[in-house]
Write a structure and sequence with these properties.
Oligomer: single chain
Number of helices: 16
Structural class: alpha+beta
Mean pLDDT: 88
Largest sheet: 8 strands, antiparallel
Helix content: 25-40%
Length: 721
Amino acid sequence: MDRANAAVRPEDIRNVVFVGGSGAGKTTLVDALALATGAVNRVGRVEDGTSLSDYDEIERRRHRSVQLSVVPVHWGGVKVNLIDTPGYADFLGEVRAGLRAADAALFVVSAAEGVEGVGGVSRALWEECASVGMPRAIVLTHLDTARAGFEEMTRTCQALLGGGATENVLPLHLPVYGPASADGHRPATGLIELLEQRTADYSTGDRVWADTSPGDETLFDRARERLIEGIIAESEDETLMDRYLGGEAIELATLVTDLERAVARGGFHPVLFAAPAAESGRQGLGTVELLELLTAGFPTPAEHEVTAVRPGDGHRPVALHCDPAAALAAEVIRTSSDPYVGRVSLVRVFSGTLHADDTVHISGHGWSADHDTEERVGGVTAPFGREQRPLSEAVAGDIAYVTKLGHAETGDTLSGTDSPLLIEPWQLPEPLLPTAVRARTKADEDKLPQGLARLVAEDRGLRVENNDHTGQLVLWSLGEAQRDVALERLRDRFGVDVEVQECRVALRETFAGTATGRGRHVKQSGGHGQYAVCEIQVEPLPEGSGIEFVDKVVGGAVPRQFITSVEKGIRAQAGRGVATGNPLVDVRVTLIDGKAHSVDSSDSAFQTAGALALRDAASGTRVDLLEPIARVRVRAPDEQLGAVLTDLSVHRARILGTEPADPGRSAVHAEVPESELTRYTVELRSLTHGVAQFTRSYLRHDRMPPQLAEQIRRESATAPG
């Protein structure tokens, strides 16, 4: 077993998820920490695919993280699982999986982006972490190219992440800048530790203590005083503030201990900064201080409370104990397919110990039959970029790869066969971007269902729908980037090539007024001919009535055995539509007269006559188009409410009202045509910088505006076939 990747005690493990916008520098920071700890000998590059965590072929092509990855490092006798996540909003499902695997979160913000560096997704995730009490810290990157100074970016983080709080979102250090370069930039070469009042010089590529003075002593004194007051405010010692205000000098050891406890409880959120090492060095600016915070300030897995339920026990909560000797309880964080070993599951162990070759119980998704089974574990390995290093076991609190679990999907629970458990899966955003796909060839068509099923099993942010109304196969995703990656994987990994089609909505037709129609089907070509005549009256009905058939024939004009034939023909034609190829609904069809022949009339002849009569009636009145209407709820910041309302109006929305949601946010309730929602998730994200969210559900069908309906009629008339 590789000692560098093993952990034997939960208290010697830290699981930290890196959260931040695309381009913030999360992956570069993970590589820098791996170099600083000696886990690697050189820093990889995202651009050329040599980064530890961006190792997928698609990531190398796109120069962007598209999936969660784990890089374990060791520092001061502690194993730290660095969980790198994508920064693009389309991959929010991967970020939430990382949050489930982690016990603390590190928010990475690019100072080069200024206020835009704190993206809307980061703000939303910060609030999610706050709601469950997850400890958080902030790391500023790209200080050497910053549009804003360190102090200004700290205030920005306080305002946007801390909700305006200034007493518990505070820097631990101040940057030391070197001489200005030819272009005027002053690179950060070191830092001043505010509590310890000492300077660390990183200009050589390794941390060296220096005697450099604070420079701006007023700024230093003010920052140190605010930090001490912030720590004391979060202290469990209620006498500490009175002693401090009374002029007593608080010991450094007390301040450091209270700081670490406040961070671990999630009550204090330190701001740090970091950068990769110089070309010849190992330790980048701030990396040592960051590692010290991760190991000393962030909580152990034992401090993270997790519950499960046991079947047959009324789903009563069962507290899980982060103890290697306890019963096994682990959760599948993500799944992937390896061309050599098959399905690979990334697992966070919350209780017990997972061994290679163990037989485990797999449960999930509400204890459905498909996810309530037993299977034998293959190998257990430690993740390390594209490598998987063999382990004999994974103890409570650790993260590991498991092979050969063919039935386990993302979010499923692994437990002992004698004591099955279920950990409630984390909440995933609903995929709201539909894309219709069609196989290019017959060979692709045969492989498409299995390929899509495996994609959905790996990424729970995707959903596949066979739309019975439109006849399309629809892939639902969180956004265009996630969709494009899914289609690339479908092609590259599963050998399935698809065409993307325009996604249609389920339109309906109905009669605007009462009309009559006559269907005459008479043919004679030797032998038995075909003879059927029927006359009908069609009148509109209220929404949801469907097709109502009434027989009012008198005198046997249509023999009784052919009445049902007429009805079959009418219903079949209604299913095909009478104007645009969309189903006809909400009409009453009354059979009022007809003619028959003693020899040539038949079931098929009257079915044909019924269909012809319905089409004839449609030519005598206006046929309206009905479009599906969705009930929509948009949750947006108060300052963006006006923009959201204006945009909804552009989408033909009927605004029902607004109401307060969370603090600083409002919820808009509206009815919106589904055709206007096809790309709404992308447009809303762009409009609100990723902050606003919406949900949708089918409400009813309603009449389409005449000008839009006429456009569809023209398109249907010119469509081939």
